[in-house]
Amino acid sequence: MTKQEKKNKAKEFYTIMYRTRRFEEEVFEFYKRGLMPGLAHLYLGEEAVAAGVCGALEERDFIGSTHRGHGHLVSRGADLNKMMAEILGKKTGYSKGKGGSMHIMAMDKGILGANGIVGGEIPIATGSAYASLYKGTDEVTVCFFGDSASNEGTFHESVNMAAAWNLPIVYVVENNLYGISVDIRRVTKEYHISKRAAGYGIEGVCIDGNDVFKVYEEAQKAVDKARNGGGPTIIECMTYRWQGHHVGDPGIYRPDEEVAEWKAKEPIAKLEELDLLTEAEIQEIKDMVEAEIKEACRFAEESPYPDMEEAYTDVFVD
Predict the structure, then answer these.
(1) How many other CB atoms are found less than 10 A from the CB of residue 38?
(2) SS3 of 159, please?
(3) From CA 287, how far away is CA 298, in angstroms rounded?
(4) Shortest CA distance to 177 belongs to which of 198, 150, 204, 217?
(5) 73 pLDDT higher than 90
(6) What is the SS3 assignment for 111?
(7) Each residue's pLDDT tens digit, 106-154
(8) Alpha helices in the chain (DSSP H)
């Protein structure tokens, strides 16, 4: 990558990460104002993972997402207005307000849906990769999930199938060390999930998930390998969520010094430290994003709720 190419990528990544952060901050504000039904699981602090991975994908590729999925949609270029409206339960949202935060999806961007079941997206994404293999097409599916999801049976069964059939999929572990309030290091002897790849005969790598260029580099290699018949890879991104498990969780089970340590190496500041962008360029990005987020909030807040009759549509009855 030339210096100019790296600068261009830095601008792209900074825009995506700042957009994700501001989106999540405003979601939190809506929750505190009592305008958001249910809960949201914020992506604050983990922005580099989605930005780097999605930067390595083609338009035709697919994504399986988690209950902490807003960052995946933002990084994929989903419509911010529709996203915010969906989170507020409005009829102008991606799923007409029926999916909300934990089941948000953007089929126009290949995002097969977030999932309120821990590990629930793993077999869905694996099925997507199988469909591409079956049809003889060259799409790649990326599956995001957290550290605790790797202890679910869906993880082991899906990775085993993907390895056995050489499926075009990349499993991305967003290891933020905690599943709700449980420290993964207390309940798993080897908490580096990528090491499990050896048991399935596939490649596994563990990287700094707050380094967007490192995430992008590893994702590019894994995506290219999957697209060219090389089978699955597990990429473990070590990162950290700033907030509790969800917007209503104070997160007091985490040591203050640990939170401070991770915030000190957060992804946006880490990118700024590379000095690839001038202060003027950064400010230009921030001004643009602020306008986008302001419009998304206005659109969502002013949009109507679905009519009561909508409760009986989009329902599948056996």
Answers:
(1) 14
(2) helix
(3) 17
(4) 150
(5) yes
(6) strand
(7) 999 999 999 999 999 999 999 999 999 999 999 999 999 999 999 999 9
(8) 3-32, 47-54, 70-76, 80-87, 121-135, 153-164, 184-187, 212-227, 256-263, 267-272, 279-302
